[in-house]
Structures are given as structure tokens and as C-alpha cells.
Amino acid sequence: MYGLINGPWSGIPNLLLTAGFGLITIIVGAVLADRMGKKYAPFIMVGLMAGLQIMVSFTSAKNCTLTVGGQEFFIIAGSLMYPILACGEDYINEFYGREIAKSSVTCQFIVRALSTLYLVWLIYLPCPAADVENYVMFEKLMGVVPRVTIASITATYIGGLLNVHIFAKIKNKTGRGKLWLRTFVSTAVGLVVNAIIFTLLAFAGTKPLAVMAQMVFISVVVRLATGVLELIFLYFMTFLRKTGVILKDAAPITIIPSVLDDKEVKA
User: Contact, 36 vs 118, CB < 8 A?
Assistant: First the structure.
């Protein structure tokens, strides 16, 4: 087995560290977006989420093994990105509202789909005759399996929209209180639906039903386990808001299409 951390219980620290690095990325991105973007911070966060979504394309070719108690569990590295994406969506939903969170999910869908198509084109660009080895290596590293990719993009989009909708629905009922409830319920439902849709679209007819059920179970358990870290993250960001570290000068964001004519520009 290859990896920095190995052993009969290596799956636990590997999972926690992966989730931890993801949360640090979201925290640093959120603070920098607020400090540098001010009232336009939500747009920077949407861009950050789109960038993380592209990483799913690159990491979906990476197979991972999480070892717990000597038992090895297979999971695709890209799947470990989904809890982080859900965390970012919940942050945007909590601090900037449902509509911007929905826009973030839509942006991720568009960016992921178009970047995947462009990646396919780049993979099959001709290479120098003397460097065929590099071509083959890059093709294997970045190879895109159409069915798996379509399944991943579809599952992420539907699961993301569901997460945003449920989070906002519960918040409308409870107000700012019970952050833990809307976070856990929306994340759990969104990620479970994501896992089921992805597994069915990607592997139905190619793997036994028992194997697919195990894949869904493992994926859901891994994602829900990282949900505890998401709660810690959101409460920490709420603390930063209360202490004035972020959203200190928050103001409503109004989007006005640019319809200025030449005379107004000169004026």
C-alpha cells in the first residue's frame, strides 16, 4: 500500500486530515473574500467553489483505500471533495442567502461540465513523436470515463440544489437558531441523494447490487462523519461574524446590468 500514512487504522487520520485541509481552504477563502472583496465577497466564494469543483474532475481518477481495523474500504478521491463542497454551500447559504447559494451550485455545474469537455480536448492534442511516453502518462492520469463523469456531474448538481433548498427551508422555519439542525439535515439528505444517483448512473449493470449498496453505504458514512467538522466550521464562522472579523461592513448586494450609453460613460 502506498501513502504517507499507512497502518490498520490509517483510514481515520487520512480522512480527518483530508477533511481538515478542505475546511482550512474554505475558512481562508471566506476570510480573504470578505477582507478583499467586501460586499462582493459572495462572488469570490462562488468562484472558489467552482475551482474546488474542477478539482473533482482531476481527483476522480484517483482510487483511495481507507483502512479501518485492518479492513480496507475503497473510495474515489473525488468523493472526498463532496463534504467540502457541501460545507462551502452551507456557508454561502447561511451568510449570503439561498439565491446566491443556488447560483454557486449552478456555477459549479457549468464550470465542471465545460472544463471536463475542454480537458478531453487537451488530452487528445497531438504530441511530439519523441515524447509519446508523456502523452500516454497524461492520458492515463487525466483520463475521463464518460459515464462516470456524467454521473458525477449530475449527482453533484442535484445533491447540491437539494442541500441548498432544505437548508434554506429549515432556516425559514427556525430563524438563525438551530444551525446544527439545518446543517446536519440538509447535508445528510443532499449527500445521500448524491451518493445514490452517482452509484446508479455510474455502475448500474456493471457491478452487483450488493457491491453498489456497499459503495453507497461507505460513501454516506464517510461523508456524514466529516459533517461533524462542518458543524464546527459553521459555528466558528458564526463566532467570527459576531466578533466582527468577517461581515463587519456587510451591505446588500444589488446587481444592476450595465446599460450605460456612450454619453453616460463620458459624463
Answer: no
Beta strands at 63-68 and 71-76: parallel, antiparallel or unpaired? antiparallel
Question: Can you tell me the mean pLDDT for 85-106?
Answer: 92
pLDDT value, residue 254: 54
Q: Are the C-beta atoms of 35 and 119 separated by less than 8 Å?
A: no
Q: Which residue has the higher pLDDT, 215 or 26?
A: 26
CB 84 within 8 A of CB 139: no
Phi and psi at 68, nearest 5°, equal: -130, 120
Using the structure block, give the residue that is written with the C-alpha cell 459503495: 215
Task: List alpha helices for the chain, DSSP H.
Answer: 11-37, 41-59, 82-96, 98-123, 132-142, 146-174, 179-203, 209-225, 227-242, 262-266
φ, ψ (nearest 5 deg) of residue 67: -100, 120
Q: In whole angstroms, what is the distance from residue 234 CA to residue 226 CA?
A: 13
How many Cα neighbours within 13 Å face the side chain of 109? 15
SS3 (DSSP) at 38: helix
Show the cell assigned to 259. 446599460
> Alpha-carbon distance 4 to 17, whole Å?
12
Q: Which residue has the cell 462523519?
A: 225
**The residue type at 147:** R
